[in-house]
Design goal:
56% of the residues lie in helices and 18% in strands. It has 13 helices and 10 strands. The strands form 4 sheets. A 4-stranded antiparallel sheet has the order 5-4-6-7. A two-stranded antiparallel ribbon has the order 1-2.
């Protein structure tokens, strides 16, 4: 059950990211064509005010389709209409005209030509595959040539629409931390809140409500408890707890390595902070963690920080363990993952959001569009680097999979 909660939580964070793009594009006049909860195939879908909404069969995240993310190029015509021209040679002339108009940058005439081609394709006898490819390609081309296309918008609008996705994750991080700090996660106490089933703490007999007095005979504070457990590096430790007005010795018990840290598998009860203090703490923690993540990413260029990278496999496993440790632990992990998604997407690499922002700014400064070929070449490099990060993360996670 904890695994399912962890997967759904990750999907929720992706959905929030896409909602950021959706809301910003709608507000700035780039009316999205599709917004899905989950991924296709669609279980149910409906259209309202020109936007197709749907619920996908794969319940993870979601996606938004913004028209005209790239300036249409002549190669787009060959990709979508090549098979139709092969089956109906009479389409070659109109297709060639559309290609030439796109190459010349006459986008208004190109859109009219695309509309005419839609009628010609409908009147020809074509195979199902050729017709479907042509209809889809021409519809997308019509969207990309429309006045609400992304590439036609001013630089500041393009930047806001793309930045809205990571920004939504950052806002969610702050909200989750405010909730956490204003409830039971504000200030830790030495009293045990939850004990994970099957954990070393459970085997040692630790119970919710116990108040930890000592570790290996040393009096402890709430802050010292996780530090001393982690410093054991797996060596057996003895806990002294206060239970029912008496002192109870538990252990020796060996902490277990989990997500790179030695833990016993329990959480401490906390007391909430006043809302203003919880809010300021949430902003402070978000800033501190952001700096740490940025430093870790920067260290990758020098070969350091490799062991700090995790793949979706490790993220789900870590989230699953956090679910077992209690709501506070899961909430803090969810906030951290949301922030990580935002910062990863802000890397200036295509096809990440940061890459689109960088190209939008570059085109605004240059006063003209960057060639499609440049987009494609840079995207290949970006995809390769993202895959490299995934492989590094997966190599870190595999030894810890249990």
């Amino acid at each position: 059950m904890s695994f399912v909660v962890a997967v759904l939580g990750l999907g929720f964070l992706v959905l929030v990211h896409e909602l950021g793009h959706f809301g910003a594009s709608l507000a700035l006049g780039m009316r999205p064509r599709k917004f899905y909860l989950g991924f296709p195939p669609a279980v149910v879908k409906w259209t309202r005010r020109g936007i197709e909404y749907g619920i996908g069969a794969i319940p993870l995240g979601g996606f938004v389709k913004i028209p005209g993310m790239h300036r249409p190029a002549p190669a787009d015509v060959d990709t979508t209409l090549g098979r139709a021209v092969g089956e109906a040679p009479g389409l070659a002339g109109p297709v060639d005209r559309l290609r030439r108009l796109l190459a010349a940058g006459d986008h208004e005439a190109a859109r009219e030509s695309a509309v005419e081609l839609q009628g010609l394709v409908a009147s020809r006898s074509l195979s199902e595959h050729a017709r479907r490819s042509a209809d889809k390609g021409l519809a997308e081309l019509d969207d990309a040539l429309g006045p609400d296309a992304y590439w036609r918008a001013t630089t500041w609008k393009r930047v806001i629409v793309i930045a809205a996705g990571p920004l939504a994750n950052i806002v969610l991080t702050i909200v989750l931390l405010i909730v956490l700090f204003s409830t039971s996660g504000g200030k830790a106490t030495t009293r045990v809140a939850d004990v994970a089933a099957g954990s070393p703490a459970a085997h040692a007999g630790l119970q919710p409500g116990d108040r930890i007095l000592e570790i290996n005979g040393l009096p402890v504070t709430a802050r010292a408890i996780p530090r001393l457990i982690g410093a054991s590096e797996g060596r057996p430790i003895v806990l002294t707890v206060h239970r029912d007005s008496r002192r109870v010795l538990l252990g020796p018990v060996s902490p277990r390595l989990s997500s790179g840290v030695y833990r016993l598998g329990f959480t401490l009860r906390g007391v909430g902070l006043p809302l203003p203090q919880a809010t300021s703490t949430a902003f402070r923690v978000t800033g501190e963690v952001t700096r740490e993540i940025v430093v870790t990413i920067g260290q990758l260029a020098t070969g350091k920080g490799r062991d700090q990278i995790s793949s979706p496999v490790g993220i789900v496993q870590g989230s699953s363990e956090a679910v077992k440790q209690g709501a506070d632990s899961y909430l803090s992990v969810l906030a951290l993952i949301s922030l990580s998604i935002a910062l990863l997407n802000l890397l200036p690499l295509l096809p990440l959001d940061g890459g689109h922002i960088a190209f939008a700014v570059a085109e605004g400064v240059r006063g003209r569009a960057v060639a499609r070929e440049v987009y494609e070449r840079v995207s290949v490099v970006g995809i390769a680097l993202v895959l490299l990060l995934f492989v590094i993360g997966l190599s870190n996670d595999i030894p810890n999979i249990s």
